[in-house]
Structure formats: structure tokens, C-alpha cells
Write a structure and sequence with these properties.
The chain has helices at residues 19-37, 53-62, 66-83, 97-109, 164-172, 181-192, 224-229, 231-234, 243-250, 264-277, 309-316, 323-336, 347-376, 389-407, 411-432, 434-440, 444-465, 470-482; strands at 3-8, 41-48, 90-93, 114-124, 129-131, 149-158, 177-179, 198-199, 201-203, 213-214, 217-222, 255-260, 285-289, 292-294, 297-298, 343-345. It is an alpha/beta fold. The two termini are 45 Å apart. It binds zinc ion (ZN).
């Protein structure tokens, strides 16, 4: 069985999850489900990044222990599984033993490229990264708009420079494929500007005693990125050189990371370089999404515009259709947000999509077709024969557009293709007016063909929706069988 490896980035756990991370993990979930449908053996990984200074500081502010803070928030991230209907296979916390062991093993495997030196630099705790002066904007971190801290220490460094040409070639030749091209070019131009060795440890004192010890030097903690990135292989059992590590990483040429645009340098440069140093194959592809804003602005506590996925799902789910909240959130993020660019959430836009596309578009069509089939007492065992050539052509073309869109990670275009088929069916119903024909009950054969065609299309629509809206898809298929029409998305 073909293997497929997929990961999300590990979010920091200094806050509870917001809708921005939901976007990433839902995109990844669609990819995972699609590959399972294609018959591949999928390993889909997510988890939490718990060794950062941010967590130490957030815990101090709250007056709780770091351990307590990370455990509480990690649990919330795990709970996304249920409310967003996620299908990840493993969830790794970077405070787990399996991660610590793997992270130290990787350090030792990179040892020939690690050296110690005195260093002075500007560090942004938000990014957990050093900045060069010319990378700052008016002296502020371009990502956080905060002033970085001056750090002067003796730390360990990794010889990144050594891998400059090899990385460039891997990325240029798409052996590490970066999607979209704009991000690929961004990485290449960063490499072309000249790489520098990176600082990969900090004093245990500066780390607040939190983090993973540098092997053989307990006075130093491993830099949180060097530690966290190794999660991608640690979850597979790298520390024990386990079977999953062999199958899903070492021998597998389909390894994909999904990440946000702010952390591309870590994933496209540092991480592959670490792996090359350790003589482990690098990932094969990196898919980079944009940011989700709320009301046109970055989600932030001070602006009070953070969208809580738990509240959102609860608000739009109902007793009669509990899947409506989950699938409406999945649908909105996949359809409204351009997959590789920034997109915006507002309740207004959300409700508009819900009403027009889900309650009306998909919900209406399903209800009409299933009700027609019931009234007409259509025999389902024979409906496949009732697909005329024009219908088959349209459905076939939709599958083509759909698959092409998904191969390119264009989730929105995949959904647009499905909704075009929905509109095609709506126009067909308007033209053929099966309701009137039902009243007349004259041309039975013709009616049979109309309903057969519509059932054929609806079944295909439900199949195409499987990776996107898994529960809704299942519900439609069940209703087709039982001929009991129940609203999929009650009107707001
Ligand atoms: Zn920053």
C-alpha cells in the first residue's frame, strides 16, 4: 500500500486555539481524507509545541506552572478533533518523552555541524528567532511589531551555510516542492541573499529552566525550533528507528508539511538542512497557506476579534443537525479563504455562505431530489441506468476539475466545481419541471429518467464532498438510500 505522510505545524500553546489554526488543520484534513479515499496508507500528524519561552512567560503572567498551562491548552487543541471532525492519526506534544529522546538523537546526529561561540543578537520571543538588523521594520519584528530583545550569550550554532547550494538545488528542482510558487521564490531569494549559521541553543537560565537539555551540556537548552521541528519524525518513532519511521519517512517519497506563511524559513531551509546533516531524507513538499484575519485585521486579544472555533461550531450546529455547525465552519474556511493567500472572517460573510451555498444550494437540491424520488417511489436499484449521456458528461467533467483543483491544493476551486454541478441540476429541474409531471402522471418513463439523472448527480456530489464535509456527505448518501429527507443545514 502506498504511504502518504502529512503534518500540520505545531501551534504554540500559550493561548487556546483560534480559527486561524482551524484553517490549517482543516486544509490538512481534506488532504488526508482525499489520500485515504485514493487508497493510500495515510499518517496524518498534528500536536503542540510546548517548549517555547512564550509559554514560560504566559504561565508566569497567569501565575500557574508552565506544565499546567501547556497541559490545559494542549487539551483544547486536541479537542478540535471532535468539533471540527478531524481525522489525524497522531497528536504529539513536545514535552513527551518520545519527542525529547528524538530531539536529542537528532542533535547528536547533526553533531559534526554544531559548534559553540559567543554571540550577540536581537531575539523576538514571539517568533522564537534571531533577526538581523536589516530584517527589522523600524527596529521592530516584522511579524509581531514588537522590539526584539538584545541577547548576549555563548551558544551552540549549526552550520547552515554548508547546505546552501544543496538546498537551493532541491527546491529549484521541486525535489522539495514548495506551493505556491510565490513562496518558493521567496525561499530561493532568501537563500540567494546568503545563509548564515543559526544559533540552536540558549542558556538554561534564559530558557527559565524550561525545554530540552543539550546532550552533554545541561547548562544549555535546545533552541525551541531545533527541538520542535524534529517532532515530524519523532512521532514516527525516530528515536527507536521504528517501523513507521522507516515506512512513512525513510522510504516514502510522499511527505508533505502544511504550514502558515510566517514559518516558511524554518520548514523550507532549517529543517531540511538539519535532516541533510543527519543523513535523513528531507520532506518532499511544503504547502503554505496565508493568514486568516477577522474583520480585516489580525486576530488579537487587544482588538477583541479572536474567533473561537468552539463557539462558532456550537452557534451554527443544532439539535436536529449537529453536523451543520462543524461542516459549515469547514465549508466556510475552505470555500471563502483563498488557500494560499490571506482571507477574512466576518459573521456576515459566514452567514451569507451558510444560507446561499449550504441551506439553499446543497440543502435544497438534496431535499428536492430525495422528496421527488420518494413520491415517485423510485426504485434505487436501477438508478444508475438512468444517467443520460449529457448528465454523465457534466459529472465526468466535474470530477476532472475537482481532482485537478485538489492536486494543486486549490480547495476553493474544488468546491466551486461541485457547486457548478449543483447549479446545473437546479437548472435541469427548472427546465424539466418534474413536479408538474408528477401531478399529470402522464409520462412515467420521462419522469423516471429525470429523477434517475438527479439521483445520479446527487450521489456523485456526495462522493465529491467526502473529504470536505464528511458528515454531510454521509447524511446525503443515507437519505438517498432511506428516501427520508431531513434538512442538512437548517436556515438561519
Ligand atoms: Zn516576532
Amino acid at each position: 500500500m502506498k504511504k502518504f505522510y502529512l503534518s500540520t505545524a505545531l501551534p504554540y500553546v500559550n493561548y487556546a486555539p483560534h480559527l486561524g489554526f482551524a484553517l490549517e488543520i482543516i486544509q490538512a484534513d481534506v488532504i488526508a481524507r482525499l489520500h485515504r479515499i485514493l487508497g493510500e496508507d495515510v499518517f496524518f500528524l498534528t500536536g503542540t509545541d510546548e517548549n517555547s519561552l512564550k509559554n514560560v512567560r504566559a504561565a508566569a503572567e497567569e501565575g500557574v506552572s508552565v506544565k499546567e498551562l501547556v497541559a490545559r491548552n494542549a487539551e483544547k487543541f486536541y479537542e478540535l478533533k471532535k468539533i471540527l471532525n478531524l481525522s489525524f492519526d497522531d497528536f504529539i506534544r513536545t514535552t513527551e518523552e518520545r519527542h525529547k529522546r528524538g530531539s536529542q538523537k537528532l542533535w547528536l546526529a547533526c553533531k559534526k555541524d554544531i559548534y559553540k561561540k559567543k554571540y550577540r543578537g536581537l531575539y523576538c520571543v514571539g517568533c522564537e528567532e534571531f533577526y538581523k538588523k536589516d530584517e527589522l521594520e523600524n527596529g521592530l519584528c516584522p511579524e509581531h511589531k514588537t522590539k526584539p530583545e538584545l541577547v548576549e550569550e555563548e551558544n551552540y550554532f549549526f552550520r547552515l551555510i554548508k547546505y546552501q547550494e544543496q538546498l537551493k538545488s532541491l527546491i529549484k528542482k521541486d525535489e522539495i516542492r514548495i506551493v505556491p510558487d510565490t513562496r518558493k521564490n521567496e525561499v530561493l531569494s532568501f537563500i540567494n541573499s546568503g545563509l548564515q549559521d543559526i544559533c540552536i541553543s540558549r542558556s538554561a537560565e534564559r530558557a527559565g529552566g524550561w525545554g530540552i537539555d543539550v546532550p552533554g551540556d545541561p547548562g544549555q537548552k535546545i533552541w525551541v525550533w531545533f527541538d520542535a521541528l524534529s517532532n515530524y519524525i519523532n512521532a514516527l518513532g525516530y528515536s527507536k528507528n521504528g517501523k513507521k519511521f522507516q515506512e512513512f519517512w525513510q522510504k516514502n517519497k510522499k511527505k508533505l508539511h502544511t504550514i502558515g506563511k510566517g514559518i516558511i524559513r524554518f520548514h523550507a531551509i532549517y529543517w531540511p538542512a538539519m535532516l541533510l546533516s543527519a543523513k535523513i531524507p528531507p520532506p518532499n513538499a511544503i504547502f503554505v497557506h496565508g493568514y486568516l484575519t477577522s474583520g480585516g485585521r489580525k486576530m488579537s486579544k487587544s482588538l477583541g476579534n479572536i474567533i473561537d472555533p468552539f463557539e462558532l461550531v456550537k452557534k451554527y450546529g443544532s439539535a436536529s443537525s449537529p453536523q451543520a455547525g462543524t461542516d459549515a465552519v469547514r465549508y466556510f474556511l475552505l470555500r471563502e479563504i483563498p488557500p494560499t493567500e490571506d482571507g477574512d472572517f466576518t459573521y456576515e460573510k459566514f452567514e451569507q455562505r451558510y444560507n446561499s451555498d449550504l441551506a439553499k444550494g446543497l440543502g435544497n437540491l438534496a431535499a428536492r431530489v430525495i422528496t421527488l424520488a420518494k413520491i415517485f417511489n423510485f426504485q434505487f436499484s436501477i438508478f444508475n441506468k438512468f444517467s443520460n449521456s449529457n448528465f454523465q458528461k457534466v459529472v465526468k467533467k466535474t470530477w476532472g476539475d475537482y481532482r485537478k483543483a485538489l492536486d494543486d491544493f486549490k480547495f476553493n476551486e474544488g468546491l466551486i466545481a461541485i457547486w457548478e454541478l449543483i447549479s446545473f441540476c437546479d437548472r435541469y429541474i427548472e427546465k424539466e419541471r418534474p413536479w408538474e409531471q408528477l401531478k399529470l402522471k402522464t409520462k412515467k418513463e420521462k419522469l423516471k429518467t429525470i429523477i434517475g439523472n438527479l439521483l445520479f448527480a446527487l450521489t456523485n456530489i456526495a462522493e465529491m464532498l467526502k473529504p470536505f464535509l464528511p458528515e454531510t456527505s454521509e447524511k446525503i448518501l443515507l437519505q438517498i438510500k432511506s428516501r427520508k429527507s431531513e434538512p442538512l443545514f437548517p436556515r438561519l
